[in-house]
Write a structure and sequence with these properties.
By secondary structure, this protein is an all-alpha fold. Helix content is 73%, strand content 0%. The protein is built from seven helices and no strands.
Length: 202
């Protein structure tokens, strides 16, 4: 299961691999005895299938580890340093790498977990880019906190971690709505300012 995490998964894989190798050794000994007594050696296809599945499963968890560690490293990026274009390019490369994993694993929970992680990031990054619009005011950020149910401060420590914890990908339309509203309000503010300046000159 994806939820167990990569550390537990690797431990379980090592345990299962050791058991399979032991059974494989016993099967080889049995084959030798069968040949000795001129019997037809067993095929033991299940052992080969188990080894192949464990190899594919390890490949999945290797990819999961790469993705999780990559995204974990992004969490410390401060708000002003977030380069959404660069991060999107890296996310797309990860998505391509996931697609190249053997098709046999696509029904497995761990593969679906990997896909979900990358898809969530690819949905989140354009939203972060939108949130960088100059029209976003404190009131809009407060509205965003209400939508996501997450509290944060727009201070010098504000980072990708705050945005990733907010799970913006689950509120795409709502986030877009806040940004669009902020842009419209900015236009109104500028028009009001122009009118005020015009009246002051009269």
């Amino acid at each position: 299961k994806w939820e167990v995490g990569n550390d537990v998964a690797y431990e379980e894989l090592e345990t299962q691999l050791a058991c399979t190798l032991e059974i494989g050794t016993q099967a080889e000994d049995l084959n030798s005895a069968q040949v000795l007594f001129e019997l037809v050696p067993g095929d033991y296809r299940e052992i080969r299938d188990s080894k192949l599945e464990m190899k594919l499963l390890k490949n999945c968890w290797d990819m999961a580890t790469l993705i999780l560690n990559t995204f974990k490293g992004w969490r410390s990026i401060l708000w002003n340093d977030i380069d959404t274009e660069m991060l999107m390019n890296e996310s797309k490369l990860l998505k391509d790498a996931v697609r190249k994993i053997d098709k046999k694993v696509r029904i497995w929970d761990v593969f679906k977990g990997i896909e979900d992680e990358v898809s969530a990031m690819i949905l989140t990054l354009p939203l972060i880019d939108m949130l960088k619009q100059p029209s976003m005011r404190k009131r809009h950020w407060r509205e965003l906190q209400v939508i996501t149910g997450k509290s944060f401060e727009m201070d010098s420590n504000f980072s990708m971690e705050n945005l990733m914890e907010a799970k913006l990908d689950a509120y795409v339309e709502d986030v877009e709505g806040v940004v669009i509203k902020s842009a419209k309000e900015l236009v109104i503010e500028k028009n009001v300012t122009k009118i005020k300046e015009t009246w002051e000159k009269m």
